[in-house]
Amino acid sequence: MVYFVRTAGEADVEQIRALLAATFHDTYDPFYGADKVRRMVDGWHSPGAVKARIQKRGGEFLVADNGKDIGGIGYAAMYPKMVKTAMLHQLYVKPSCQNEGIGRDIFAELETCFPDAEIMRVEVALPNVRAMSFYERLGFSEVDRMEEWGAPNSGLPAIIMEKRLELR
């Protein structure tokens, strides 16, 4: 199936939420358990939270769409804590669509959306070795570690990875 990357709209909210729920459970249940992941999904990916990301000024929310189904999503925005840095907040591909290049295609588009950014930054949950490997293949490298991935007081450690962006 061929997927095209496009900007997300409010009509996509429920499909995005379904994709995030499926992907989060597939990825994180083995590390954190289904109950904790369900709470993460319910809190972090509520309809209001997804809609706010889609509407965020200075952010870019993309979906990979085949006309019937969304196979992946990506969301990035300029990072207010660091000059000339874009933060990749989300890049998830539906489990049944993984290893088809969708994540790479979404990232390639996101990489071009922030002409003032010199660095793209991402936080990756420490046990998610598969994601770390994916980001390394895209040119990211580890620059730091943190104890609270996703939300304050989460208790979920993560690594911080960065990639220098090409000057445009």
What do these coordinates show?
It is a single chain. The protein is an alpha+beta fold and 168 residues long. The protein has one domain (4-164): 3-Layer(aba) Sandwich (Aminopeptidase). The chain is built from five helices and seven strands. The chain has helices at residues 13-32, 34-44, 47-55, 102-111, 129-137, and strands at 4-7, 59-65, 70-78, 85-93, 119-125, 141-146, 158-164. Strand 3 and strand 4 (85-93) form a beta hairpin. The mean pLDDT is 91.
Descriptive labels:
single chain; about 170 residues; alpha+beta; Aminopeptidase; 7-stranded mixed sheet; 5 helices; 7 strands; Acyl_CoA_acyltransferase; acyltransferase activity, transferring groups other than amino-acyl groups; Bact_Acetyltransf
CATH architecture type? 3-Layer(aba) Sandwich
Mean residue pLDDT: 91
Structural class: alpha+beta
Give the low-pLDDT segments. Answer: none
- Number of distinct beta strands: 7
Strand order within the widest beta sheet: 1-2-3-4-5-7-6
GO molecular function: acyltransferase activity, transferring groups other than amino-acyl groups
Keywords: Acyltransferase, Transferase
Domain N-acetyltransferase: 3-166
Pfam families: Acetyltransf_1 (PF00583)
What is this structure's SSE topology?
Elements: E1 4-7, H1 13-32, H2 34-44, H3 47-55, E2 59-65, E3 70-78, E4 85-93, H4 102-111, E5 119-125, H5 129-137, E6 141-146, E7 158-164
Parallel strand pairs: 4-5
Antiparallel strand pairs: 1-2, 2-3, 3-4, 5-7, 6-7
